[in-house]
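Interim report, section 4.2 (structural modelling).
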Amino acid sequence: MKIAIASGKGGTGKTTIATAFAQALSKERKSVSLLDCDVEGPNSHIFIQPELDQFEDVNMLIPSVDAEACTGCGKCAEVCQFHAIVVIGGQTLVFPEMCHGCGSCTLICPEKAITEIPNRLGILEGGLSQEGIRFGHGILDIGEPMAVPVISKLKKWRDLMDAEVVLIDSPPGASCPVVESLRGADYIILVTEPTPFGLHDLRQAYKVTQELEIPAGVIINRAGIGDTGVEQYCEEMGLQILMQIPLEREIGHGIAQGKSLLDIKPEYENRFLQLHLQITEALSIVDRS
Amino acid sequence: MIIAVSSTDGKFNTEFSPRFGRCNFFIIMDTDSGEWESKPNPAADARGGAGPQAVQFLSDAGVKASITGRYGPNAFTTLKTAGIRAYIADAGTPEELLDRFKAGTLEEVNAATGREMH
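Predicted structure of the assembly:
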């Protein structure tokens, strides 16, 4: 079962929930993997402290033009949808940061003047946590704009997807990296806070799950602050509220010290096991319908 | 000589645009005859790579010198490859900038002056 943890708004507690969920399941002797797909700022590892001992570069193939063989015909520039290659004054210029690695320029070049060379976008790191969680995350290199290829490679990396329960910690927002992280999930947990800001971004995130046709439920974090807008919205949309985590000084304090939610509140273990049952039940209803 | 000034509204006697790749118009001027015309910048709404595309457009129009507020690194590299000279100004209308170009009082730059834009 693949469960993704997402949110429109940043800082709602996706990582807090994903890591606590993974720890609770692994304590129940389930085989669990956790993929931190927030490649622009991965931090799940801080909570679950895996021993990172597996590393792999993520490269994208970008064009390299042989100036001798190039006739400046401009076919490569015409075919490039991202304007990553420009022919001007008889010379062909490549802008690697705009290239999406599709290879069209290489295929279309009548002179075979273009070869593809690897351009590093980031790195994957993985390893086991003490509890036995199979962990992996991607880190986008500074200055690289493209997160999607790093996420996509992480989701195919080693045996991460073979665990009984696969948890995917998604980046915030509702754009390409989020879609790439959520794609293929059986269920999506949308984490929000009960404020107008949380609600605004929850709407967007929920639309993404609808677009992907993946069933979703909501966890309200920092419950007790703000207003009742989120609850009303969930009721209107028929979105199940799976869990509410109250705003408590003890939790905030512990997380600020890098402790995981389960370390701070061991009694939450049962709530997360319950969460797993709720999701299993929700999915079996989907299957039957 | 054909020169280009970036422009917001495409007019000859209103303030120029300090943006290069995503300006709305280029005022293309002939320094010899004084004739000018306004052309919409096809790169204004580009998803990415506006700088190089704008240069491509200017190069096709026979432009040999460009005047704007600042140049990003990709625009600048492409200008140099195209053999277009890069000038910058803080303020002025295309009409005034044309005079300053002819008088040789505009600053020519030999490196990108702005950060990369998205």
